[in-house]
Amino acid sequence: MKALVFERVVPRFAAARVAATLRGSGRGAAVGPLRLLDQDPPATPGPDWIHVRPRLAGICGSDLATVDGATSRYFEDLVSFPFVPGHEILGVVEPSPGAGASGSGSAAGTGAGDPGSAGDGTAAGRAAGASAAGASAAGSSAAGAGAWASLQPGERVVVEPVLGCVPRALEPLCPACAAGDTGSCQHVAFGHLSPGLQIGYCTDTGGGWSTAGLVAHRSQLHRVPDTMSDEDAVMVEPTACAVHGALSAGIVGTDTVAVIGAGTLGLATVAAVRRLQAPSTLLVGARYAHQRSLAVELGADRAVPSVQLERTVRRATHSLRSAGQVTAGADVVFDCVGSVDSIAAALAMVRPRGRVVLVGMPGRVTLDLAGLWHRQVALTGAYAYGTETVDGTRRRTFDLAFDVVADAHLGRLVSARYPLERFTEALAHAGSAGSRGAVKIVFDLDQQPPRAAPGAPAGRSTPKGRRA
Questions:
Q1: 310 to each of 214, 279, 293, 324, 464, how far by Cα in Å?
Q2: Which residues are within 8 A (CB) of 249 and not within 5 positions of it... i.e. 6 or more apart?
Q3: pLDDT for 383-410, tens place per residue?
Q4: Going by C-beta distance under 8 Å and a sequence separation of 6 or more, which residues neighbour residue 325?
Q5: How far is 392 from 222, CA to CA, in rounded Å?
Q6: What's the pTM?
């Protein structure tokens, strides 16, 4: 079995950065520390862990930043090497080695009452006991709600990759995990697992870019409805990020909202804002024509070239321009790019006391924040997911994401599928997706035709590995 493994090799990391700078995003894969290796499936850290065989695994902007050697040094203590990337995962539940004929012992988990798992004095026993204790704690918390039903081998699942207190078997849960806000877990570098803020950045769990599979805690797995296509399902994780960002902005029905960027995350944000918030006006700035068309299809009132978005906001809000900024502006701006230029543009087009939400992952930037101070603008990050409050009810972000994906048919954003062996082509395609008329590029680990839901609309995908 094969896996793409990212190793901590500083010279290769530097070479990747140079290659990406000179040749474009994704091109660092050919010379960087990402290698295709033979690998066995990872061991389960405890009784409530399940083997998952990836079927489709997306290439995220954060993955590209890692491959390109462009990630912030902030993350150095929050990952462990070597790791298998890939956190946007549609997979299939697998029986663990040694499971019975039905495999249900592995898939369902042995639970806290397993007499052979806890207190046997071994390191594995201690980890198993801790995992069972964590599972027990999660059962009464928002983080564990609805996550403990039996899972059977062969069932399709989407992975919620954040490695919070429950997967790490930590008690008591940190305040964020106890409230269901797992994306804000305080303990992603602690517990019986190696450091790793998510599956796909942790040496113990494996990741989605692998035919050897990965392991996930039961609380991290979400069944995929039979009516949902594979391509829709692989879009649930990035859509959950967009849902969390959309709901964190405090949008009301009279608001004017602007979205900067219309790649995967930007388009998912448009879909989430339109379906969960319904602002008065939703404007999108997108670099490429196909992105603008998709943005309108997904609910934008108007989508314009990126360089025209500020002027469009100014006209929509009857604003003037002074000191490089609009005098009124959008109530909320979502930055789905995370570059110094996009953050500066967001601050220039938001109104005084407005809100800028960083949905795209930024790195080290240099900005003049005098306008933010003078205009009392709120600048906030929107990382990952957990539990959201919608109409006074708490719901898991992934449950909402399933709804948004199904309603908007976001599987149409999957543009091409590649086998692992062609990873350099896949990453180069992902790095230049916009200019090549594509949106989401994924690895196909199943080597089978995609499973389409009954009556699902035709997507925009191309045959495996074919360039869009």
A1: 44, 18, 19, 11, 39
A2: 257, 277, 332, 334, 355, 357
A3: 999 999 999 999 999 999 999 999 999 9
A4: 347, 348, 349, 371, 375
A5: 23
A6: 0.87
Contact assessment for residue 238 and residue 266, using Cβ atoms and an 8 Å cutoff: no
Residue closest to 7 by CA, chosen among 79, 62, 87, 56: 79
Q: Would you say residue 140 has pLDDT above 50?
A: no
What are the tokens at 175? 């305040």
Report the distance separating Cα 163 and Cα 199, nearest Å.
7
Structure tokens at 265: 């995350």
| DSSP state string for 254-315 | T-EEEEE--SHHHHHHHHHHHHHT--SEEEEEESSHHHHHHHHHTT-SEEEEGGGHHHHHHH
CB atoms inside a 10 Å sphere around CB 463:
8
Which tens digit of pLDDT belongs to each residue from 180-215?
Answer: 999 999 999 999 999 999 999 999 999 999 999 999
CATH 3.40.50.720 holds for 245-384: yes
- Highest mean pLDDT pick, 28-37, 65-74, 308-317, 448-457: 308-317
Q: Reduce the DSSP state of residue 319 to 3 states and report it.
A: coil
Residue 105's SS3 state is helix
Please, is 76 exposed, middle or buried when counting C-beta atoms within 10 Å of its C-beta (0-12, 13-18, 19+)?
A: exposed
Which neighbouring-strand residues pair with 444? 56
DSSP 425-452: HHHHHHHTTGGGT--EEEEESS-SPPPP
Say how far apart CA 197 and CA 109 lie, in whole Å: 23
- Give the other-Cβ count within 10 Å of 125's Cβ: 15
- 3-class secondary-structure state, position 339: coil
H/E segment holding residue 330:
strand 330-335
Answer with the residue of higher pLDDT: 137 or 411.
Answer: 411
Domain boundaries, the chain: 2-234, 245-384
Could you tell me the pLDDT band of residue 73, with boundaries at 50, 70 and 90? confident
The third-level CATH classification (topology) of the domain covering 2-234 is Quinone Oxidoreductase; Chain A, domain 1 (3.90.180)
How many Å apart are CA 16 and CA 69, to the nearest integer?
6
